[in-house]
Amino acid sequence: SAVISQKPSRDICQRGTSLTIQCQVDSQVTMMFWYRQQPGQSLTLIATANQGSEATYESGFVIDKFPISRPNLTFSTLTVSNMSPEDSSIYLCSVATAPGDEQFFGPGTRLTVL
Amino acid sequence: QKEVEQNSGPLSVPEGAIASLNCTYSDRGSQSFFWYRQYSGKSPELIMFIYSNGDKEDGRFTAQLNKASQYVSLLIRDSQPSDSATYLCAVSPAGGGNKLTFGTGTQLKVEL
């Protein structure tokens, strides 16, 4: 499976600021996704990052709050904008070779908002 | 009704025993089913996936799928303390597609 890295691994941020999380894959992948895992909860899909076009967001998530870029087949960023303590969570990117295939997860970014 | 349901546990089994983890799902047309293992503070790691009714074995792990009853299970034979983790069931929707819906996970504890 692909090797996936995320930066930063963790961060502590102040309310009202923004943080951009990077996801890098060591090989080209068709599908890239962004998930959130809030404390003690399971994973929730935020959006599918589409190469060269706007991301596809799930219900409850909007582009203004979570802008996503995917300039090529190996890299994507997720920005958490105008953060509040409720955004404290682990943010994970995942990749899949093709639609419907198994997904592999990056190590995650642990975000704490004060 | 939750889309994917799992017993949160903890499920405690003695070392060497068989651990049985269960998952039910509400979308009858769901296509693909995945089991992930998540150690505390780590990201989910794929263990098994299954698409067809029946059993699929990989080493000490067996996934079982029954689409008529809408459940999928994971059996872990010869459980080891290193198997202690949270196991997440994930389901992809009818028609295939990318969105995985995760259950809340079952915490497994393998005791010496």
Describe the secondary structure blueprint for this structure.
The complex is a heterodimer of chains A (114) and B (112).
Chain A: E1 4-7, E2 10-13, E3 19-25, E4 31-37, E5 43-49, E6 56-57, E7 68-72, E8 75-80, E9 89-96, E10 104-105, E11 109-113
Parallel strand pairs in A: 2-11
Antiparallel strand pairs in A: 1-3, 3-8, 4-5, 4-9, 5-6, 7-8, 9-10, 9-11
Chain B: E1 4-5, E2 11-14, E3 19-25, E4 33-38, E5 45-50, E6 54-58, E7 61-66, E8 71-76, E9 85-91, E10 101-102, E11 106-111
Parallel strand pairs in B: 2-11
Antiparallel strand pairs in B: 1-3, 3-8, 4-5, 4-9, 6-7, 7-8, 9-10, 9-11
Low-pLDDT segments of chain A: none
Number of strand elements of chain B? 11
Sketch the major β-sheet of chain B.
6 strands, mixed
Low-confidence stretches of chain B: none
Estimated radius of gyration of chain B = 13 Å
Helical run tally of chain B: 0
Q: Could you give the distance between the termini of chain B?
A: 37 Å
* Range of strand content of chain B: over 45%
Counting copies of identical and different chains, the oligomeric state is: heterodimer
Shape of chain A: globular
Annotation keywords:
heterodimer; A: 114 residues; mainly beta; 7-stranded mixed sheet; 4-stranded antiparallel sheet; 11 strands; B: 112 residues; 6-stranded mixed sheet; 5-stranded antiparallel sheet; globular
Walkthrough of the structure:
The complex is a heterodimer of chains A (114) and B (112). Chain A is mainly β and 114 residues long. Helix content of chain A is 0%, strand content 50%. Chain A contains no helices and 11 strands. In chain A, strands 2, 4, 5, 6, 9, 10 and 11 form a 7-stranded mixed β-sheet that branches. In chain A, strands 1-3-8-7 form a 4-stranded antiparallel β-sheet, with no helix packed on it. Chain A starts with a strand and ends with a strand. Chain B is mostly beta strands. Chain B is 0% helix and 51% strand. Chain B contains no helices and 11 strands. In chain B, a hairpin with a 4-residue loop joins strand 7 (61-66) and strand 8. In chain B, strands 2, 4, 5, 9, 10 and 11 form a 6-stranded mixed β-sheet that branches. Chain B has a 5-stranded antiparallel β-sheet with strand order 1-3-8-7-6, with no helix packed on it. Chain B starts with a strand and ends with a strand. At the A-B interface, strand 5, strand 9 and strand 10 of A face strand 5 of B.
